[in-house]
Every structure is written in C-alpha cells, then in structure tokens.
Write a structure and sequence with these properties.
The complex is a heterodimer of chains A (583) and B (112).
Chain A: E1 5-10, E2 14-21, E3 24-27, E4 36-37, E5 40-42, E6 48-50, H1 52-57, E7 65-66, E8 79-81, E9 84-86, H2 88-107, E10 113-118, H3 124-136, E11 140-146, H4 147-156, E12 163-170, E13 175-183, E14 186-195, H5 200-219, H6 227-246, E15 249-260, E16 263-272, H7 273-279, H8 281-297, E17 307-311, H9 318-328, H10 341-353, E18 361-363, E19 370-378, E20 381-391, E21 399-406, E22 414-421, E23 431-439, E24 449-456, E25 462-468, E26 474-478, H11 488-502, H12 509-512, H13 521-535, H14 542-560, H15 564-582
Parallel strand pairs in A: 1-10, 10-11, 12-17, 14-18
Antiparallel strand pairs in A: 1-2, 2-3, 2-4, 5-6, 5-7, 8-9, 12-13, 13-14, 15-16, 19-20, 19-22, 21-24, 22-23, 24-25, 25-26
Chain B: H1 4-8, H2 16-29, H3 36-49, H4 52-60, H5 68-79, H6 86-98, H7 100-103
Helix pairs in contact in B: 2-3, 5-6
Classes of the chains: A alpha+beta (583), B mainly alpha (112).
C-alpha cells in the first residue's frame, strides 16, 4: 500500500490541507470549513486553540494569541504565549498538527508525510524552519514546493493548449510572481521573483496607521500601548480592507475602544477606496517591478503572456486587477479559487511523489543566485570580496555546479569559504548564508586548486562541499542557518512539548484503535534507508562500504530497541553517504 | 558518453520545436521528483541544443572531455617542438574558460 501524503498550504493568514483520493484532488474540510485561520492561542484552562477559536479570542486576549507567524519563520525570535516562550517553528508546528489531525479524521488512518508549500522567494533559512515545523508536528516534509508553482500545477492540470502563464501571488505576508510555460503536460516555471515581506498585512498596517493618526488628532490619544484596543483596531482595519474590495467607502465604528481620563473613546471614521489605494500604491508598484523582473528573467514581454492567474486573498484588491489589465490588456483569470489552489497543487505533487499516476509534471527554478567570494576586481579595482556566482537565478532544479579556485599565497594551509545569496557583484552586499574553513591544506605554493560544489535540491535547500583537488581533502555542509536552526535534541524536545500541549484533544478513536499497525516514521525511514543503502553496495568504495555496514548495524540495533532518538544521527550520516553516491 | 541529441532522441538537424517537444516528453518520462539524476542529464542536454545559438556553440566545441592537466601537459610537451595546432589551441582555450586557475595566471603555464 502506498502511504498517503497530504498537501498543505501553510499560509500567513489561512492554511488548508488537501489530498488526492481515487485520482481526484480535493480540499479536506474540518466539518464544513475548508480554511483554517493561521491563528494559535491558549484559552483560560491553558489548552491550545488553533484556527477560528484562536482568531475569535484574539480580540479579547491578544496577549495569548499569535497571528501571522509565517512572517517570523527563519528568524531567531521567540514568541510569548500563555507564559511560555516559543520559536516560530513551534507555533507553525501547532497549526500543522491541527491540519494533520483534520486529515487523519477524514482519511481514518494516521498520516506522517506531507508536501508543504512555501513562497517561491522564501530563503534557505525560511525553508529550513518550515521543514523543522513539520518535524515538530510529526510530519516528514517529503517536499517543499513553491506556492505560485503549486497554483500553476493545479490550474495547468487540465490545459491542453501550450501557453505562457503569469502567476501573481499576493498573500497575507508574502509576494511571489512566476512566469510559467504549460505544454504537453509539463508545467515548467521559467522564472520567479518576489518579496518575502510584502502582503495583505502591510495593507492592514496602512489602515491601522491611519486609524491611529485619527485617534491622535481627534482625541490626542496614543492607542499603541493598549493591547486590547490595538487588537480591535487590527480587526477593524482588516474588515475595512475587505469592504473596500467591493464598496467605494468603508465606515469604521469601534465604540468604547478605550478609556481616557475617565471618558470613553469611540472610534468613528470613514475611509474611501481612493484614499486606501493611495496608501498601498507603493506596495502595488513594488509588485509590478517584481513582475517585470520575472518577465525579463523568462526572456519574455507582457505581450507573450496568454493568461494571468491570481493567487492569495490579497489579490481581491480591485486596483491590482486594474493595474494588471493596464499592463497586459486583458483580465486575470477568475476560475481558480485564490485561497485553495495552492493546497490543491501541493496535494497533486504529493500524489506524484507517492507514486500515483499523474498527468502533469512540474519543473521549477530557483529565484536566487548563490555563490561565493574571491579575490578579484570590482569596478576595475582590486577587491577581496568579489562575488562569484555559482548557481544562477532561474536555474532549473535540481542543479549541481562546481567551480575551481586557487589559494592566493605560498604555504596557505587554510581557506575560508563564505556562501552568499544575491545578485550584487560585491559579495558583502549580498546575504551571507554560511561560512566554513578547510584546514590542513598541503604545504605548496600559491595556486593550490580548491573546487567548490553547490548543489541545490528540489526543496530549494543548498548543500555545499569544497575539496582540495590534489589530496581530496573535503568539507561538506548543508546550509543550516546557525541562528534559527534547532539542534537535533532541541527538535525532539520541541516535538514532545508541542505534542503534550495538545494532550487529550488528540485522542481520536480511529487512530488509537490500531496502535500496533502504525510504526514511528523514524523507524520506517530507517528501514527504507537500509534497503536503499544495500542496493548501493556495488558502486561504493571499500571505505564507504565499511562505513555503510557499520551504520546499518547501528540502525538495526536502534530499530529493534525502538530507540527513536538514537536513530537520528546514523540515519543522517547514512543518507549523506547515499546522497554523494547518487550524485 | 552520449551526445545531447542522443539523450533527447532527436535528429542532428532537428529544429527548436522538435527539440522542445522531445525534451518535454523526456521530462514526463523522468520527472525531477522521481528521477532527479536522469532529469539533470536531460535538462543539460536540452540547454546545450535548445536554440540555434546554443546548438552552434555545442557543435563547434564537441571535443572529447579530457582532463585539463593531461591536456596541458600534452600541449606543453608539443609546444617545445612546434606551435599549437588549431585543435590544441581550441581545447586549451576552452579549458581556460572553464578553469579560473589558468585565467588568473596562477597555474604553472610558462614552459620555460
């Protein structure tokens, strides 16, 4: 039996889960709800709330409710919730765990694997954090796919004609734009661009600032320090934004918003669509600039685009449609549900990975350039941090590239390698994502050749290795954002912590009925890995083979004693060996 | 080692759209999610011959892949006796474009 892999759209504002069943893709509903608001809270009894319940209590208990956690993913921040401090991964894991339960209730059996979507413009650190959130929630993230790509897949599945499509994806917190070619059952992303901190939340913030200004000028009061008033202002701003999608004016009324010197303060103000559109104009301009960069990356012009699809709730803003009409001369497509198509695409890709027969194949690109720095020239002058791109923006994934470098002085016994993400010829203007050293180089003149290999996988995660060519001395790493990255043990602790939060809420009879038939995913993964490793014996060197045999032995012992925590390290080491044998 | 034309199963005189179709068919047979290694080879083959410009440069430079050092040694040995022939020159040029050691002048190029 093939294990079911679910597809998840983990959004800034809303999340959804979908699955392919009997060849048909569908959103899994919770009761009659297709959408789970991405809110997490703690109630009076200390129990965890997720979704609508958490969103509803946000007005009353903003201090124990968290929204828009996606904006903090990949950052080294902590969130206070009910007297405890959590990493962004843990809060996201709570949402994922709820989605997992919704899927399990529907399917009637446990689920341990998922495809999760991320914004195309999510960085390596943000992707790693998303994968960790999955692990904490008890979900192996078998693939992360880009949100606009997932939407294109959901839409492109029933297209028969060849066409160029533009996906404009404006969510609660992120913006992506992708140019896609659909032809002969292949959905091929030609280019992607975006901004991972631009979305509907920023539009809300403009209205919030407007309301705060209004309170300041009419009542001489600063509401910023009143958390309950701020929660109401937040909610009122969001409502006004929704209203302005189909009305020219929105009336904002919040009575008894707060008390000031014994008097009740009421908020009453009108906002016109025109004023609102002026507030957000800079953001819309930024999305159109990104759109032109994406078109250029695909070597196309606006007239080459046959269709536009809109993804994300924020694309309901009328002026976005108008601006796109001006730009392309036709209306964006209306058939695709902008809230659901990403989850549907994720489920379709999950089915493909799970081995189901699918008609549409996906080819995606990286929106980032990755490279290193070397001694060179910048603007014609000597410069020690010249950026040397290795993997270029819009390269098709997966991709592996090697570049050769040389040591710069005699008897140089160490090289420091820095890895950057960005486009600037000055490496220091790009984002440094990791650095490492190779020590103990041979004692020779300058010119000792060091090769650097960058390997970007289908999840958009970078693996780096460097080697002294003459001796084979090697150092390899997977980029792990040192700031946000959990240590392995911390991940286990987080998993237990989040699981215990759910406590009794998790006891679903359908799942508890057959405890024996369900093996921990770690054990299952270890078994699969052993089988795979054995098939690689023929092509492994004697040294690798010895390592492999030892690791298989450790794993087998661990499986027998059900020592799940102990499996992690040998599993990782063995996967690494297989990874290099494969490539 | 297979040529890009062989990998994609197309004739040497195939045009852009034939090559694109053949590429897409291969992608369906070897999706990146299931067959990443084959897919990478297919993609590389497609990049090498997808349009007239890339086909020209591919067809002009279809020299067998030779280890840079061997090539250099051979060229330098020959250089003692006579100037480089066109083939050697092209091979060196190509190798130098790919290898920064040569461009930077840090490799032991000077035969004297």
């Amino acid at each position: 039996m093939n294990e079911t892999i679910i597809g998840i759209d983990l959004g800034t504002t809303n999340s959804e889960v979908a699955v392919v069943e009997n060849g048909k893709v569908r959103i899994i509903t919770d009761g009659d709800k297709k959408i789970l608001p991405s809110f997490v809270g703690i109630d009076d009894n200390g129990d965890i709330l997720v979704g609508d319940a958490a969103r509803n209590q946000y007005l009353v208990y903003p201090e124990r409710t968290v929204k828009s956690i996606k904006r903090l993913m990949g950052q080294d921040s902590r969130i206070d919730l009910g007297g405890q401090s959590y990493a962004p991964q843990e809060i996201s894991a709570i949402i994922l765990k709820r989605l997992k339960t919704i899927a399990e209730n529907h399917l009637g059996h446990p689920v341990s694997k998922a495809v999760i979507t991320v914004p195309a413009y999510f960085s390596d650190a943000q992707r790693q954090a998303t994968r960790e959130a999955g692990e904490i929630a008890g979900l192996e993230v078998v693939r992360m796919i880009n949100e606009p790509t997932a939407a294109a897949l959901a839409y492109g599945a029933n297209q028969t004609e060849a066409k160029h499509m533009l996906v404009y994806d404006l969510g609660g917190g992120t913006f992506d734009v992708s140019v896609v070619n659909i032809q002969d059952g292949v959905v091929e992303v030609l280019s992607s661009h975006g901004d991972n901190h631009l979305g509907g939340d920023d539009f809300d913030q403009q209205i919030i600032d407007y309301l705060l200004d209004h309170l300041q000028t009419t009542h001489q009061i600063d509401a910023r320090n009143h958390s309950k008033a701020m929660a109401r202002i937040n909610r009122a701003a969001e409502r006004a934004k929704f209203q302005l999608s189909d009305q020219p004016y929105a009336q904002i009324e919040e009575e008894y918003l707060l008390e000031h010197e014994g008097a009740a303060i009421h908020l009453s103000v009108e906002l016109s669509r025109m004023d609102y559109e002026n507030m957000i104009e800079d953001y819309i301009n930024a999305t159109l600039d990104a759109l032109h960069i994406a078109l250029k990356g695909a070597k196309l012009t606006a007239s080459d685009i046959d269709e536009i699809i809109l993804v994300g709730g924020s694309t309901r803003t009328p002026c976005i449609r108008e601006r796109l009409l001006d730009e392309f001369g036709f209306e964006p497509h209306g058939e695709v549900d902008p809230d659901l198509c990403v989850a549907l695409g994720a489920a379709m890709q999950a089915a493909m990975i799970g081995g189901q027969q699918v008609d549409t194949v996906l080819v995606d690109v990286t929106p980032y350039t990755y490279g290193t720095s070397a001694i060179g020239t910048l603007n014609g002058e000597f410069y020690p941090f010249m950026f040397v791109p290795v993997i270029h923006k819009n390269s098709v994934l997966p991709i592996r590239k090697t570049e050769a470098f040389v040591t710069s002085y005699d008897q140089q016994d160490v090289v420091e390698v820095s890895i950057y993400q960005g486009e600037d010829p000055d490496a220091l203007n790009n984002i440094k994502i990791d650095e490492f050293r190779i020590e103990g180089l041979q004692d020779v003149e300058a010119g000792n050749v060091i090769t650097l290999t960058l390997d970007l996988d289908l999840n958009g995660i970078l693996h780096v290795s460097a080697q002294e060519k003459a001796t084979g001395l090697e150092k390899s790493i997977t980029i792990k954002n040192a700031l946000s990255r959990f240590e392995n043990t911390a991940l286990d602790t987080a998993k237990q912590r989040i699981t215990s939060l759910f406590g009794h809420l998790e006891s679903d009879p359908a799942i508890e009925a057959e405890p024996e038939s369900f093996e921990a995913p770690e054990i299952e993964a270890a078994r699969a890995l052993i089988t795979k490793a054995e098939s690689f014996f023929d092509q492994a060197s004697a040294e690798d083979k010895e390592d492999m045999v030892n690791l298989i032995e450790t794993l087998t012992t661990g499986i027998q004693s059900k020592d799940i925590a102990g499996l992690e390290e040998p599993t990782e080491q063995l996967s690494d060996i297989l990874y290099y044998l494969q490539s | 080692m297979k040529t890009p034309y062989e990998i994609l199963d197309v004739a040497a005189h195939a045009d852009d759209s034939e090559i694109k179709r053949a590429y897409l068919q291969k992608v369906k047979d070897y999706p990146p999610d299931r067959e990443p290694r084959q897919f990478q080879a297919i993609r590389q083959a497609y990049e090498a011959i997808k349009d007239r410009k890339s086909r020209m440069s591919h067809d002009l430079f279809t020299l067998p892949a030779i280890d840079f050092d061997t090539l250099l040694d051979q060229a330098l040995a020959d250089a003692q006796l006579k100037p480089l022939n066109d083939k050697q020159f092209n091979a060196l040029l190509r190798a130098s474009l790919e290898d920064k050691t040569f461009v930077n002048g840090s490799a032991p190029v000077d035969p004297s």
